[in-house]
Task: inverse folding
């Protein structure tokens, strides 16, 4: 504002470009030094015992899981783990999980249900590993089953999106009673690069894509996807991981307290309804029967809907024959 | 939204009196002939993509299908613009397909049995799954659950619709929620994967059927080439994206040619759905129960068995009537 008053000629330089603003946010979310699951747990948990393996194929180092004591509570923790340097990144496959990672997560979630402890997940992933090995071992099936399990798991689930919430790889661990996002995190249906490659047919348009998808935590909160946005300390979570962990811990414990007031059945039903209600669509006037079509279309001509919520279209459409029974 | 009704949907994606070149064997095929073979090339077996309406006509008993929720309409919640604005893309797709969104769902009969059927139309924005699609799949599932009729979903979809952002992503959770409930309630769900079934569609309900069927040589995979190339710098090897690959790796139960699809689904439903009365009554039938046989044998050997045997038979009869 001051700059604008001082020199009108510098307007273009000082006026922030909304697209680049969002992109700066994306880069913040991807900052290598950002604390991941293990770093956050170091500050949050009194004790964390990591458990390994999916009991089917192997252990995936891009997802860590285990049992923790947080402020005297037993909690099952599952989270994505990117590396903070090249060496660790190679070991952790740059945080891109294989199916075993999701199957390990499912095993720990079932354990949490069985031993009656809440589940806490940390989401920071660009997407599931899109390579040959993942395809062979059914990454799609692993994601689908993990999502399915989370929709019906009989124990509280709190999700914290700490960095990138990217695509199916993220939603596989992000179906929670409460979805929390850190201020500088992003959440998107596909990575901005992937979106640009498909819709713009050019990977260079990723900035535009990120802007168009409204990826930032606050925008996602406005859309109702994220419940709570937690402010980050200083220049971002990486500048003060201890403070970040403290803030997350506070909100997470508060949510666990809230969930503890509900019975498990109420909790699961509320979670189902929460995701059941997601999306936005309109209801148009009753469609006119397609004119002059024979065969199937002719048979479809008499179609109508039985949902009582739908407004009756008062136009010229002939009424559905009342003697036709509902199938 | 933009479409003013009534609008006249296309008769079909192709003119009936012209020829189509088969992408599989480069043979020129007369369209009328192709229709008779259910849009499958008679020479090489290439399965052409078909519209949702055509698929429904091929699957259900004639005249039994009643569409539901045809008036659900997508919204542009993000005011999304890529090379074109989302509403413009929607309008173009609606005008060319006559559908409001990428799926048609309703209730029909297959082999005389009622089913809840949801079919994707690839010609509507690549069959992509946005809020309306997810809602229709969910309603199809909820109806199957409420009426205890099998759910059949025929997927032909590139995955989640990017133009609706995370709303599309949330459809994975929304649809899996109802699929999970179907499993708990033991209501059969048959997933049919047609070309193509990829991304978020494959990674949710499509892979989660009690039985997963796929059409021959359909593209079935999680990550598209452009995504793979952009993320890990390499495309998948040849042959890593087909029905046959998924069959070999255990994620598809059967690869079924289109001509046999309807019969196969009917046969599966015939076995999956427990016949209400006779099957449950049979084990309780005293004539064939091992216990009755045993008591009959022991009865022949000892004196004080008469009471036990009649009590046993009485109990069996009791069960019989309860089940009936």
Result:
């Amino acid at each position: 504002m001051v700059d604008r008053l001082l020199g009108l000629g510098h307007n273009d330089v000082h006026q922030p470009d909304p697209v680049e603003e969002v992109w700066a946010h994306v880069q913040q979310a991807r900052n290598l030094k950002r604390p991941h699951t293990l770093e956050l747990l170091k500050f949050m948990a009194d004790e964390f015992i990591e458990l390994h393996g999916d009991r089917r194929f192997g252990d995936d180092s891009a997802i860590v899981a285990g049992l923790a004591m947080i402020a005297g509570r037993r909690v099952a923790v599952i989270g994505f783990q990117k590396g903070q340097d090249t060496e660790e990144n190679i070991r952790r496959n740059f945080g891109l999980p294989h199916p075993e990672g999701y199957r390990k997560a499912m095993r720990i979630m079932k354990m949490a249900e069985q031993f009656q402890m809440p589940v806490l997940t940390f989401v920071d992933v660009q997407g599931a590993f899109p390579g040959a090995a993942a395809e062979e071992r059914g990454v799609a099936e692993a994601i689908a089953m993990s999502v399915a399990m989370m929709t019906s798991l009989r124990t509280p689930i709190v999700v914290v999106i700490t960095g990138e919430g990217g695509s199916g790889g993220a939603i596989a661990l992000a179906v929670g009673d409460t979805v929390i996002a850190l201020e500088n995190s992003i959440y998107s249906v596909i990575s901005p690069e992937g979106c640009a490659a498909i819709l713009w047919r050019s990977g260079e348009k990723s900035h535009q894509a990120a802007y168009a998808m409204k990826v930032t935590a606050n925008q996602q909160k406005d859309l109702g996807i994220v419940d709570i946005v937690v402010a980050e300390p200083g220049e971002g979570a990486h500048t003060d991981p201890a403070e970040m962990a403290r803030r997350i811990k506070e909100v997470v414990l508060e949510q666990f307290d809230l969930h503890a007031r509900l019975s498990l059945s109420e909790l699961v039903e509320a979670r189902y309804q929460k995701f059941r209600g997601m999306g936005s669509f309109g209801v148009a006037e009753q469609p006119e029967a397609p004119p002059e079509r024979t065969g199937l279309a002719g048979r479809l001509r008499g179609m109508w809907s039985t949902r009582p919520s739908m407004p009756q279209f008062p136009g010229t459409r002939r009424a559905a024959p009342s003697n036709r029974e509902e199938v | 939204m933009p479409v003013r009704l009534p609008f006249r949907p296309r008769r079909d994606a192709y003119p009936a009196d012209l020829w189509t070149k088969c992408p599989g064997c480069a043979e020129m095929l007369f369209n009328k002939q192709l229709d008779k073979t259910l849009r499958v090339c008679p020479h090489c077996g290439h399965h052409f993509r078909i519209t949702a309406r055509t698929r429904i006509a091929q699957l259900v008993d004639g005249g039994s299908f009643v569409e539901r929720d045809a008036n659900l309409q997508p919204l542009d919640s993000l005011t999304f613009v890529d090379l074109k604005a989302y509403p413009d893309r929607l309008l173009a797709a609606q005008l060319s397909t006559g559908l409001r969104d990428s799926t048609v769902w309703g209730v029909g009969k297959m082999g005389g049995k009622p089913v809840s059927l949801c079919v994707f139309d690839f010609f509507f924005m690549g069959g992509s799954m946005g809020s309306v699609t997810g809602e229709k799949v969910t309603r199809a599932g909820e109806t199957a659950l409420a009426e205890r009729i099998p759910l059949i979903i025929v997927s032909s979809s590139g995955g989640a619709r990017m133009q609706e952002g995370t709303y599309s992503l949330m459809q994975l959770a929304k649809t899996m929620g109802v699929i999970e409930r179907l499993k708990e309630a033991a209501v059969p769900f048959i997933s049919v994967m047609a070309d193509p079934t990829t991304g978020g569609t494959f990674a949710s309900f499509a892979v989660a059927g009690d039985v997963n069927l796929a059409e021959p040589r359909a593209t079935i995979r999680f990550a598209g080439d452009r995504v793979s190339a952009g993320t890990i710098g390499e495309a998948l090897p040849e042959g890593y994206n087909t029905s046959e690959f998924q069959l070999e790796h255990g994620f598809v139960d059967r690869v079924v040619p289109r001509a046999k699809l309807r019969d196969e689904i009917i046969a599966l439903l015939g076995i999956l759905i427990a016949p209400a009365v006779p099957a449950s009554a049979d084990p309780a039938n005293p004539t064939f129960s091992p216990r009755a046989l045993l008591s009959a044998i022991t009865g022949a050997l000892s004196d004080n068995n008469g009471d036990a045997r009649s009590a046993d038979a009485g109990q069996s009869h009791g069960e019989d009537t309860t089940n009936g």
Notes: Residues 3-11, 289-294, 304-327 of chain A have pLDDT under 50 and may be disordered. The longest helix of chain A spans residues 241-260. Strands of chain A lie at 47-51, 63-70, 73-80, 119-125, 157-166, 178-182, 186-188, 228-230, 281-283.
